[in-house]
Write a sequence for this structure.
């Protein structure tokens, strides 16, 4: 194992997964595993599913749907910010032109 890497084991739906990761990623990996595990168990209770593959597919769909929504929202806000900055730039340019003429 690379000495810069960390070997960790996480559990999802009572199944252990051993991974080699960057040390800075450990906290995020553990939180992600806990989120997946909790959401899968929640789906099992709500929908009565017992097949882990189905539960994990439901978690994946739910999480990716949230990701896509967030990504679209960020894109919209980025475009909105660019528009506002362009407007400010235009206003400042106009004021500088006025000042230069005086």
């Amino acid at each position: 194992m690379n000495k810069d890497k960390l070997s960790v084991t996480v559990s999802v739906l009572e199944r252990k997964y051993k991974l080699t990761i960057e040390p800075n990623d450990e906290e995020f990996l553990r939180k992600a595993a806990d989120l997946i595990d909790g959401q899968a168990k929640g789906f099992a209770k709500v929908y009565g599913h017992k097949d882990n593959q189905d539960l994990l597919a439901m978690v994946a769909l739910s999480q990716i749907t949230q990701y896509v929504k967030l990504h679209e929202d960020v894109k919209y806000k980025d475009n909105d910010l660019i528009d506002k900055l362009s407007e400010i730039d235009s206003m400042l340019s106009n004021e500088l032109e006025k000042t230069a003429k005086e």
